[in-house]
Specification:
heterodimer; A: alpha+beta; Ctag/Cox11 (Pfam 04442); 5-stranded mixed β-sheet; 4-stranded antiparallel β-sheet; about 40% strand; elongated; B: Cytochrome C Oxidase, Chain A; Cytochrome C Oxidase, Chain A; 17 helices
């Protein structure tokens, strides 16, 4: 048997085909990781920035403790006016809070934006239960439209003791692909 | 570049191949090369050119870091330097160098006449120079080269100029090249071994490359997917990683490191193979624990798929995930420890001599183990939060990639260059190269451990004056290391040009089919499969 035999060449091509298919499957696998991670995050309750929190029905208000929540508003490469109507609130854990944000599209065209929340310190994130938020969906503003939008949330009493002040910050991004 | 002269056709196999034409000459020989030896030579020279390119970037970085404050480069350019140094060294130097070794040595070691798909082999190589041009050329486009780090994390990579797109395309092209090279290696090893060479009698270098090739086929497409997502996020309105559209930048890290962690084993497993060939040859004993070496290599490869999130301990993962990935990562120390143990046991009571290949192999074991140990420190999730993105990490991965992969490449070069060229290299100069490299390597990178533990961040052009002393030591070492590698080029060129005639088997303890061929081997070898018999004492 020499190496040039048709039999070996056929076997080689057959194995190559299998390996090419494996490589193509792995290319698809890279993309399949996206829905896979989204599912994991949903199941594990991670990264649910854009959905209402469950278990927000805790009504036990801890009046012995005061927490200051500061509000912050930013835009990222988006010519919108965006600010909270109050800079901070003093609350008790368990108390329901409503804060209004004012947003104005200063552009001559309708724009769709998405707000993304973040927390400082990060430890506060797990203890803020948002019932209603403009960040749960994309917001489309007509040219020069001004709108007041609410956030309704509670802070649960498991908030770490050392966190007496935290900041809830929103950044509005223009949703890519919607600009005309 | 006439490592193998095309008119050397007097080998003992050659009476059988009268139907083969000789090699074309001149430039055409290299452009249309389908001979595994020629392609191996091309790969090795290409990777060395890229190594010098990446090294120049590194020395610019070290020159800037000689003093605190900004002296030589602007911060934006500094970021381009660190990024391109990483990309060029990983994809341009280390990986193609190992593919070059595979091309040259695997057919000779397993008794095959050539790689399974000679034309695909040509294509795998010639994809690389255009990719290299894209990478190097990106320095000269508006906005400069990719400066998002070699990992190209989103969202930073979504904001870069067109240099980023050039990097993305370069990664696509080099990925395609690696996948084709890997397919060729798998098919060659599985289908074209000499009769009598069962899988468990293969040389260890063939084993480690077989497993590496499978890793490449599994993860290079995932990287291609990740950078494709970056590309569509940048230009086509998708939002895989763009928070504004509901994407998640941390997701990029998951996809990237699913590729990235197997990638680090892609760069070290062939090195393990080379060292496993060299240590037995100079200890004049068969490799200790051959089967356990094979299983350890396979275990490392399998574990590499389930440890990726240890690069991401600071992204805010739940504690249970961190602990899982921490223990999985620590588990890799077990098969790696088996390997180190086996190399040492091979040397135990051997009749050792320390020619240059052995010096580099023993140096590899010594210094790579230190890099492995700092890797174990980094695996500890609570400690990693302190080490993340400091010079401690830089020290760690240079200990495993330079003292690991690169030293093994040097060892392999000295070991097989008598076979490749037919000449012995200058032993005195080789030893000098080893000691220069070994000393200057440690002078460069050892102080970085201290810098990192003291809190100096990586990828920053300026630093607290408090860190000056160790940075100056590192810079002096880096220039010494760079100089040593120019010296290496001189040794190699000198050896190609001439030198004492090398015997067919220049190392008396070496085993394997490659040593049954003349030095240099004729252009076509093993056209009729040799009969393979396992060396005595092999244990099979």
């Amino acid at each position: 048997m020499t190496y040039a035999s048709a039999e070996i060449k056929g076997e080689n091509r057959h194995l190559r085909m299998k390996l090419v298919i494996a490589a193509c499957v792995m290319f698809g696998f890279g993309f399949a990781m996206i829905p896979f991670y989204k599912t994991i995050c949903n199941v594990a309750g991670l990264n649910n920035l854009l959905r209402a929190d469950k278990n927000a029905s805790n009504t036990q208000v801890d009046v012995s403790r005061n927490v200051m929540v500061q509000f912050d508003a930013n835009t990222q490469k988006l010519a919108w006016g965006f600010k909270p109507l109050q800079s901070h609130v003093d609350i008790h854990p368990g108390q329901m809070v409503r804060v209004d944000y004012e947003v104005e599209n200063t552009l001559d065209r309708p724009v769709t934006g998405q707000a993304i929340p973040s927390y400082t310190p990060l430890a506060a994130e797990a203890h803020v239960n948002k019932l209603e938020c403009f960040c749960f969906r994309q917001q489309t503003l007509a040219a020069h439209e001004k709108r007041v939008m609410p956030v309704v949330f509670t802070v649960d009493s498991k908030l770490p003791k050392e966190v007496n002040v935290f900041t809830l910050s929103y950044t509005f991004f223009e949703v890519a692909g919607t600009q005309k | 570049m006439s490592a193998v002269s095309p008119d050397v056709v007097g080998g003992h196999d050659h009476s059988h191949d009268h139907d083969h034409h000789g090699a074309p000459t001149g430039l055409k020989r290299w452009l249309t090369a389908t001979n595994h030896k020629d392609i191996g030579t091309l790969y090795l020279f290409f990777s060395f050119i890229m190594f010098l390119t990446g090294g120049t970037l590194a020395l610019t970085i070290r020159a800037e870091l000689f003093q605190p404050g900004l002296q030589i480069v602007r911060p934006e350019f500094f970021n381009q330097l660190t990024t391109m140094h990483g990309l060029i060294m990983v994809f341009g130097a280390i990986m193609p160098a190992f593919v070059g070794f595979a091309n040259w040595m695997i057919p000779l070691m397993i008794g095959a006449p050539d790689m399974a798909f000679a034309r695909m082999n040509n294509w795998s190589f010639w994809l690389l120079p255009p990719a290299a041009l894209l990478l190097v050329g990106s320095f000269f486009v508006p906005g400069g080269a990719n400066a998002a780090g070699w990992t190209m994390y989103a969202p930073l990579s979504l904001q870069m100029g067109m240099g980023m797109d050039m990097s993305i395309f370069a990664v696509h092209i080099m990925g395609a090249s690696s996948i084709m090279g890997a397919i060729n290696i798998v098919v060659t090893i599985l289908n074209m071994r000499a009769p009598g060479m069962t899988l468990m009698k293969m040389p260890m270098f063939a084993w480690t490359w077989l497993i590496t090739a499978y890793l490449l086929i599994a993860v290079m497409p995932v990287l291609a997917g990740a950078v494709t997502m970056l590309l569509t996020d940048r230009h086509f309105g998708t939002t895989f990683f763009n928070a504004a559209g509901g994407g998640d930048p941390v997701l990029y890290q998951h996809v990237f490191w699913f590729f990235g962690h197997p990638e680090v084993y892609i760069m070290i497993l062939p090195a393990f193979g080379i060292v496993s060939q060299i240590v037995p040859a100079f200890a004049r004993k068969p490799l200790f624990g051959y089967a356990s070496m094979v299983y350890a290599t396979a275990s490392i490869a399998i574990l590499s798929f389930v440890v990726w999130a240890h690069h991401m301990f600071t992204t805010g993962m739940p504690a249970v995930t961190q602990i899982t990935f921490m223990y999985m990562t620590m588990l890799i120390a077990v098969p790696t420890g088996v390997k180190v143990f086996n190399w040492i046991a091979t040397m135990w009571r051997g009749s050792m001599t320390f020619e240059t290949p052995m010096l580099f192999a023993v140096g590899f074991i010594f210094v790579f183990t230190m890099g492995g140990f700092t890797g174990l420190m980094l695996a500890i999730a609570p400690a990693d939060i302190q080490y993340q993105d400091t010079y401690f990490v830089v020290a760690h991965f240079h200990y495993v990639l330079v003292a690991g992969s690169l030293f093994a490449l040097f060892a392999g070069t000295y070991f097989w260059i008598p076979k490749w060229t037919g000449h012995m290299y200058d032993e005195k100069l080789g030893k000098r190269h080893f000691w220069m490299s070994m000393i200057s390597f440690n002078v460069t990178f050892f102080p970085m451990h201290f810098l990192g533990l003291a809190g100096m961040p990586r990828r920053v052009p300026d630093y607290n004056p408090f860190f000056t002393d160790f940075n100056q030591i590192a810079t002096v070492g880096a220039f010494g290391f760079g100089l040593s590698q120019v010296f290496f080029l001189y040794i190699v060129l000198k050896c190609i040009k001439g030198g004492p005639k090398a015997a067919d088997k220049p190392w008396d303890g070496a085993e394997g089919l490659e040593w049954t061929l003349p030095s240099p081997p004729p252009f076509h070898t093993f056209e009729v499969p040799p009969q393979f018999e396992a060396p005595a004492g092999h244990g099979h």
